[in-house]
Amino acid sequence: MNESTSPPVMVVTGGSRGIGASVCLLAAQQGYRVVLGYRESRKEAEEVAARASADGGTVLPVRADVSVEADVVRLFETASEEAGPVTALVNNAGILEGQMDLVDMTPDRIDRVFAVNVRGSFLCAREAIRRMARSRGGNGGAIVNVSSAASRIGAPHEYIDYAASKGAIDTMTLGLSKEVAAEGIRVNAVRPGIIDTGIHASGGEPGRVKRVAPMVPMQRAGSPEEVAHTILWLLSDEASYLTGTLVDVSGGR
User: Fold this and answer.
1) Which of 32, 38, 159, 162 is catalytic?
2) What's CA 177's distance to the chain center, in Å?
3) pLDDT digits over 172-215, tens only?
4) What does the pLDDT look like over 135-160, one tens digit per residue?
5) 119, 89, 64, 72: which is closest to 12 by C-alpha?
6) Annotated catalytic, 162?
7) Beta-strand (E) ranges in 73-206?
8) Counting Cβ atoms within 10 Å, is residue 192 exposed (0-12), middle (13-18) or buried (19+)?
9) Which residues touch 204 (CB under 8 Å, ≥6 apart)?
10) How far apart are CA 253 and CA 250, in angstroms?
11) Angle at CA 236, nearest 5°, toward 18 and 137?
12) How far apart are CA 92 and CA 144, in angstroms?
């Protein structure tokens, strides 16, 4: 956390819905100034900001495509100028495409998934570190990357490109945590399992949660709020000796 008396500042990418929206709302409740990055869903982003404001919190929506370097730089510059020194990053922005086998995937599809899920996470982490690192005048901070249980399951016949992109996030988390530990920055990841959000519709199966939930040992899907609580804990001082950790939020799956 920032050592000053001003409220801590959190950047959340992909914050207009699902897990990201839940993180924004919970963080605002806990006293963060939240900068919500979104790519297309302006209306939803503004609705999240309005909900936070109604509860006395602060969420600032900023349009940014995390796969575009200039957008990422602008997102963090806006955060610094309008909210204050960034102390926390939730790398949540991610996409998946329609379910299919690898044999039918096009290079464009693979590039799109990796551009957002991997390059975007790297660029956002880079900009956060440039502002948090003690050697660059920062006060340290914490990063949580949103990976997926798919990174260890593989998502065969559905979206192994998405699963592979999240495997890259796992590896980035482990390596980056060691790179920046001495800078006062902690880097961890959560790996959600079957969470009841709209991302399943993006894969072409809106009813996927109902189909897959019986395979979960806890016999149910998780909620975005359950993942958000885990993320906020990882960012908090209660997790001050945790870094390089991958936390499965998957109901035992």
Assistant:
1) 162
2) 16
3) 999 999 999 999 999 999 999 999 887 767 667 788 888 888 88
4) 999 999 999 999 999 999 999 999 99
5) 89
6) yes
7) 86-91, 141-146, 185-192
8) buried
9) 98, 99
10) 5
11) 105
12) 8
Given a contact cutoff of 8 angstroms between Cβ atoms, the answer to whether 19 and 224 are in contact is yes
C-alpha torsion angle, residues 60, 61, 63, 67 (rounded to 10):
80
Average pLDDT over residues 25-38: 98
For position 200, what pLDDT does the model report?
67
Cβ neighbours of residue 179 under 8 Å, at least 6 residues apart?
A: none
pLDDT of 207-253, one tens digit each? 888 888 888 999 999 999 999 999 999 999 999 999 999 999 999 99
**DSSP string for 16-78:** TSHHHHHHHHHHHHTT-EEEEEESS-HHHHHHHHHHHHHTT-EEEEEE--TTSHHHHHHHHHH
Task: Look at residues 82, 73, 166 and name the one whose alpha carbon lies nearest to residue 123.
Answer: 73
**pLDDT score, position 174:** 98
Report the distance separating Cα 196 and Cα 169, nearest Å.
22
Instruction: Name the 3-class secondary structure at 189.
Output: strand
DSSP 8-state code for residue 195: B
Side-chain half-sphere CA neighbours of 51 within 13 A: 17
- The average pLDDT across 56-66 equals 98
Encode 63-88: b = buried (16+ Cβ within 10 Å), e = exposed: bbbbbbeebbebbbebbbeebbbbbb
What are the angstrom distances between the C-alpha of 78 and each of 105, 138, 161, 235, 239?
37, 17, 32, 21, 28
